[in-house]
What does this fold into?
Amino acid sequence: MFKKILIANRGEIALRIIRTCKEMGIKTVAIYSTVDKESLHVRFADEAVCIGPAVSSESYLSIPRIMAAVEITNADAVHPGYGFLAENSDFAEMCIEYGIKFIGPTPEQIRLMGDKITAKETMIKAGVPTVPGSGGLVKDVKSALKTCQEIGFPVIIKATAGGGGKGMRVVWSEKEFETQMEMARKEAKAAFGNDGVYIEKYVEEPRHIEFQIIGDQYGKVAHLSERDCSIQRRHQKLVEESPSPFMTPELRERMGNAAISAGKAINYEGVGTVEFLVDKYGDFYFMEMNTRIQVEHPVTEEVIDWDLIKEQIKVAAGIPISGKNYIPQLHAMECRINAEDPFNDFRPSPGKITGFHSSKGHGVRVDTHVYAGYTVPPYYDSMIAKLICKAQTREECITKMERALDEFIIEGIKTTVPFHQKLMKNEDFRNGNFHTRFLENFDFGQKKNH
Ligand code: MV4
It folds into this structure.
């Protein structure tokens, strides 16, 4: 087992990883930027190294600075968390060069899934269902239009270097196609330095259902059931839950097997997520694979009673898994509490938290790095807490979530708590009747004058 893990991240996930390391008897090293000096991950880690200024490119995204921190602290492994360098194959490669373990998949596995066309081709070979489309990079407008005629409009243009919804364009008819493709290429070039795009049939009003998988170093892969992440706004997830209200034992069997095939196809090592779109008929299609621990992992932890960070560290250390799949026996839901104003187009609301009281009680979990007196810096992600509830049924889980949201007090900044309170009362949401475009027609409400 590792003796000392450097956590190449900040915020709640850095704290989350430190907690598990402590329970496993592993020493921890925090890294931090100057604005994060007063953060809890710095306080709770055994050692902490300041690696640079607030701007991410010179701190949490700087591979040389992080490797310097690894060297001076003598860490034998790095945990990347999510975001920042978690899916950077160069960083994983650099860890190998330094003779330390990157807690996650191999650089090759990261690269394979990072390029969306390669990922899709790999899945087709593995027999995992994918959306019909160009089956590779689009060469020119003429051949692209031929693909469109074969599959029919609407179509979606995606960047091969993209992911998470970045650089996508939906096209409804032939006459707008050329302009949209040019814009998609330009956007992709600007955002990723790669203008490669591909085309798929656009699946209307799908659900986003993802499977948590785990693979060990000996070729075993298992699934830990699904999470429904359909409640999102501008590709930012706001609520996740497990099981999906749409799931049936038969569909779970088929999707779970597909997720395992996806993992086995690349000999996946570590915890990962296979994302699917599911249409109203229950047909499902591979979208992307995330080769990291995800923000919403606690939802799975709660329904199967696992510590996924612990399992992730164990497989990284070469411990084999049982290979058994896990099916939820409870219902869990996570609300992301962001420092944003839901009444003002979710505008970021950084600043000092003057009053703070976390929800508590049976079946309530709050993963957060903030506290009364903490200042939310404007430089990073706006998520400040994850409120996770679990109960016997979905209905009880929502009731508990309403109670927990009502007692969550965060003063001094705006948060997404009022949005979640409104969502929990929505009849369609309560009935499990939603898809990925649900929030496009949601009335977020007006700010009340007291
Ligand atoms: C799609 C799609 C519909 N049809 N692909 C978004 C993120 C990435 N994981 C894949 N995404 C989608 N791919 C096909 N063929 C719908 C989404 C999608 C989405 C699209 C537009 C606006 C919001 C969305 C939210 C979730 C998924």
